Structure to design on (188 residues):
């Protein structure tokens, strides 16, 4: 094979990989949107019918189930992580913590948390994994349970259910955490 052909093959191969990532990204965006929407609907419903106290219960019992159901529907693993997590099960692993730190830096530099995304394709074991993260900003409605001054009854129930809670003290616009999407890729 001459040099030109090798170069052409490389260009085609990387073009193919990029096209693949675009497709994965669309799927990942759809998966995070679906999870975000389902969680918000559940949260708003619970807040309206029972106030924040009842909604804590819903967040605890329903959030993991909703994430599992969205994951199986979308064919990708979708979850939420935060460096200041309420549920210790939502602590980030090493690469997720790095991306969260990068998001936090970018917000400090003036970027809007709502638009931040990141993706990569990583080699894991004998295959590849597509990884996507999308920042979750703190919104006004979040402050009842993640803000600086919680109703005493809400603070009590959170302290009882989450003795290691790190998820208060946020202000509107702060990075609350991120959606994480992963997908094992077929090896060719
Ligand atoms: C009614 C109280 C309540 C409100 C309001 C609320 N949350 Fe939460 N949040 C919780 C609870 C409880 C958990 C822990 C859920 C679990 O056990 O998986 C949680 C967990 C999370 C997590 C997962 C990471 C972690 O800390 O464990 C994120 C991200 C999050 N909330 C974001 C938000 C955002 C964004 C809003 C506003 C749109 C919001 N929350 C509003 C109670 C609340």
């Amino acid at each position: 094979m001459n040099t030109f052909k090798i170069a052409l093959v490389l260009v085609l191969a990387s073009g193919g990989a990029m096209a693949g990532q675009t497709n994965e990204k669309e799927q990942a965006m759809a998966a995070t949107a679906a999870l975000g929407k389902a969680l918000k609907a559940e949260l708003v419903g619970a807040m309206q019918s029972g106030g924040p106290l009842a909604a804590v219960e819903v967040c605890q019992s329903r959030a993991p189930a909703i994430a599992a159901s969205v994951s199986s529907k979308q064919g990708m693993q979708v979850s939420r992580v935060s460096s200041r997590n309420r549920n210790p099960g939502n602590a980030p692993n090493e690469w997720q913590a790095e991306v969260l730190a990068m998001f936090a830096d970018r917000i400090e530099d003036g970027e809007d948390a709502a638009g931040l995304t990141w993706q990569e394709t990583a080699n894991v074991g004998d295959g590849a994994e597509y990884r996507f993260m999308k920042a979750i900003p703190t919104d006004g409605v979040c402050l009842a349970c993640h803000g600086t001054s919680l109703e005493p009854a809400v603070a009590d129930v959170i302290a009882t259910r989450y003795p290691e809670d790190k998820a208060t003290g946020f202000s509107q616009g702060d990075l609350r955490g991120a959606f994480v999407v992963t997908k094992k890729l077929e090896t060719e």
